Amino acid sequence: MTQKANYIDGDWVNGNATITSLNPADPQDVIGIYASADEAQMRQAIAAARAAAPGWERSATQVRSDLLFRVAHEILSRKEELGALISREAGKTTADAQGEVVRAGQVFQFFAGEAVRYGGESLPSVRPDIGVQISRHPVGVVSMITPWNFPIAIPAWKIAPAIAFGNTLVLKPSEYTPGVAWELFAILERAGLPKGVANLVNGEGAAAGRALLEGVDAVSFTGSVATGRKIAAAASERMIRVQLEMGGKNPLVVLDDADLDVAVECALNGAFYSAGQRCTASSRLIVADGIHDRFVQALTTRMRALVVGDPRDSVTQIGPIINAPQLEKILGYIEIGRGEGAMVAEGGKRVVAATAGNFVRPTLFTESSNAMRINREEIFGPVAAVIRVSGYDEALQVANDTPFGLSSGICTTSLKYATHYRLNVRSGLTMVNLPTAGLDYHVPFGGVKASSFGPREQGRYAVDFYTSTKTAYIGY
Predict the structure, then answer these.
(1) Does residue 245 carry a catalytic annotation?
(2) pLDDT attached to residue 355
(3) Cα–Cα–Cα angle for 247, 252, 254, nearest 5°?
(4) Which residues make Cβ contacts (< 8 Å) with residue 82, sequence separation at least 6?
(5) Domains in the chain and their CATH numbers?
(6) Is 279 annotated as catalytic?
(7) Among positive and negative, which fits the CA dihedral 203, 209, 213, 214?
(8) Residue 207: what pLDDT?
(9) Residue 138 reports pLDDT greater than 90
């Protein structure tokens, strides 16, 4: 199988080592072999981005906009093909994978518009005969580190605004989904990407990450809290801008007055779809006493009907876990929950399928408390725990009792409780009668506490990370 190269300074460059991409539903299925960049190649990519930065900063906004529109057009026109690759490499169902491709195309379209729309301000000074001009300028060279669970959407919502606002970049995608990233950069090249403006470096381990913090002006990272903290510390030493999107332990509150069908659908979708491998997944189901038993019974009934298997099969609803170590981690947490005294109401077992994939039944714990590890630590799999509470006040307290603060939700027919929760829950995203996972591309994304650090991603708010402001005073 031919090695697929990294993309550095407008050329496809092989590495001294390789990464083999495997299908998590069938590890015997080799998707491709991809070049793995060493530290020297990482630095080469950063140098290329640095050399391209002055020219790209001076480029016309229409040039940037046209480039992004061409990228969006090809992504959207290849929805089925790219979706099939994501299903095969990331383990997503066909519908989920194609939906992600569409989202990536929409992100590029949105920032094609922002490229010609963003700007500064003209204000009068508080002093006579003076004008004030506030302008926005690119940050410079941005390194980007992205995860495997959204292998085209997350790179899209980092790359598109960086290019739109005149920055250059180096992307290191997850070593588990190099194929999707390679296809995205092939699209960028065909769209007329200037030499050095965007560079792709696949790589593994901490050494690759360290190299991407040297010689850049900003770093945007999506991944684990532990890695994010290390990046934040290193970035602060170098006095560079940092944007971190990390974990979540997201609560879904279900009150006694909730529509039961709506609440069950929100929990099923938010906790278990995409095999629970979403940072916005609702892993803590905080349920009021009056509806608790009916909710658990209805949810477990729905869970038993979920089809787990190869995501390319049209009947499959839950695909595989991304790799064997992550599957073992999830199974380990299920045993931790049992050891803590929680009861497995449904699931909790590995699934034996036609292929030797990384499958596990969606798992629901009951009789759990918020102090248990299964409710404190991110599992990142199709595992949720029900926490019984007396009513709204206790539900809000439990929802906020977490080191994380990414997404949250409430199911209620009370405008009073919905409004109070929306204003008082400590999270960056809040859903009312909707799953905690599921986002729009034109509005800001991010959390509080250990979930996020730095300016928001997505929408017009992305300009705050990818540009700096300059204030000029002009005497008449």
Answers:
(1) yes
(2) 85
(3) 170
(4) 75, 97, 101, 152, 180, 183
(5) 3-247+441-475 (3.40.605.10), 251-432 (3.40.309.10)
(6) yes
(7) negative
(8) 67
(9) yes
